[in-house]
Amino acid sequence: MKEIVCTIENNHQYNIIIQNGLLDQIGKLANLFDKYKNVVIITDKNVAKYYLTKVKKQLRKLGLDVYAIIITPGEISKSLAETEEIYYKLQDIGVTRTDLIIALGGGVVGDLAGFVAATYLRGIDFIQMPTSLLAMVDSSVGGKVGVDLGFSKNIIGSFYQPKLVLTDPKCLETLPDKYLTDGMGEVIKYGCISSSKLFLRLMSFQYQEDLLEDMEEIIAKCVTIKRNVVEADEKESGIRRILNFGHTIGHVVESYFKFKRFTHGEAVAIGMYQITKMSTQEGITTSKALENLRYILETYGLPWELPEMDKNKVIEILSKDKKFEGDTLNVCVIPKIGQAEIVKIQKDQAIQLFK
Ligand SMILES: NC(=O)c1ccc[n+]([C@@H]2O[C@H](COP(=O)([O-])OP(=O)(O)OC[C@H]3O[C@@H](n4cnc5c(N)ncnc54)[C@H](O)[C@@H]3O)[C@@H](O)[C@H]2O)c1
């Protein structure tokens, strides 16, 4: 079992517990739930099929009244319309400020349920139980919650920290391969920006079974890196920007194809490679690092080549990037594997990245 403590600005502290089989052992964590009466589990249909009954059963054994709200899987549910529907369901249940929301699922469920928790009755407690790799290593930690507005991703939201994160890497056994590969994009990112040791370890796996066996350790490493960055910069005004390695180009690629052709992890993989190609040309990154990055992306079945895109449309999407400060964009580059720095580039330089 790995336990990581996350402390943020106003001294709010929460634990991130990572353990194989943890969802079968919630009953042992009775003290973490004893102040609640009602618990509402928000989950999606796919995740509910595998895990809802077992989580519900154990919480009921702790004497809690347990309710479930099951949403349609996928990004489509990260909307204001779905948020409103959930508010009405919480009202029907009679949820009060001393009750608890549990987000049981991937990043979609986590972001949506977290946003609901942040805003319903001006904020009620919530716990993250991430079930996808992306949610385990990234979205369940850091407190970013929110929903989309049409094709504008995560444009409505808040910073709202969970009370607890319970991560069971065994859930990855039922995660479709496509999403495992997707999550590996983020795992590789952590190696690139902060740990050459993690990167080398990822390079050494020959079979998926070996990777899964080591997941508790790998997730703990990624979460520790994210925790350190988030603790230093909760609201993303400085160091937290390194977590966006590969994301500027990645977001453009995702949006250009309306989130259909590439998953988030695939788009970030392309972004990481392309920005590193630029920083190598500029003499910031060693060519060995670029070579290793390409090798690892290929090993995990992730793309690195920029797809063909219309330049005008690219400029239109890029211009809407929330990270622009005037005409300047802060982007993360890696001088070598395991080390990140932020450089400022001008808008026309950013456009050149898509040539
Ligand atoms: N808040 C943050 O800091 C942050 C960071 C990165 C990404 N995100 C958000 O996360 C979302 C993507 O997350 P995601 O990739 O987890 O997508 P997702 O939640 O849609 O999950 C992917 C798919 O896997 C299924 N699934 C999840 N866990 C499963 C399991 N154990 N077994 C079987 N099926 C399972 C889901 O039903 C879904 O179909 C995006 O909306 C993105 O914006 C948020």
Fold and architecture overview:
The protein has 355 residues and is an alpha/beta fold. The protein contains 13 helices and twelve strands. The protein has helices at residues 45-61, 80-93, 107-119, 133-139, 177-194, 196-204, 208-213, 215-232, 247-256, 264-281, 287-299, 311-319, 347-352, and strands spanning 2-8, 12-18, 38-44, 65-71, 100-105, 125-130, 144-149, 152-159, 164-167, 324-325, 328-336, 339-346. Strand 11 and strand 12 (339-346) form a beta hairpin. Helix 5 packs across helix 8 (215-232). 45% of the residues are buried. Nicotinamide-adenine-dinucleotide binds at residues 44, 46-47, 50, 73-75, 78, 105-109, 111, 131-132, 134-135, 138-139, 142, 144, 153-154, 171, 174-175, 179, 182, 264.
Main-sheet strand order equals: 1-2-9-6-5-3-4
Number of helices: 13
Low-pLDDT runs of 5+ residues are none
Radius of gyration: 20 Å
Proportion of helical residues: 40-55%
CATH architecture assignment of the largest domain: Up-down Bundle
User: How are helices and strands ordered from N to C?
Assistant: EEEHEHEHEHEEEHHHHHHHHEEEH
What is the highest CATH level, the class of the largest domain?
Answer: Mainly Alpha
Could you say which small molecules are bound to this protein?
nicotinamide-adenine-dinucleotide
Beta content comes to 15-25%
CATH superfamily of the largest domain: Dehydroquinate synthase-like - alpha domain
CATH topology of the largest domain: Dehydroquinate synthase-like, alpha domain
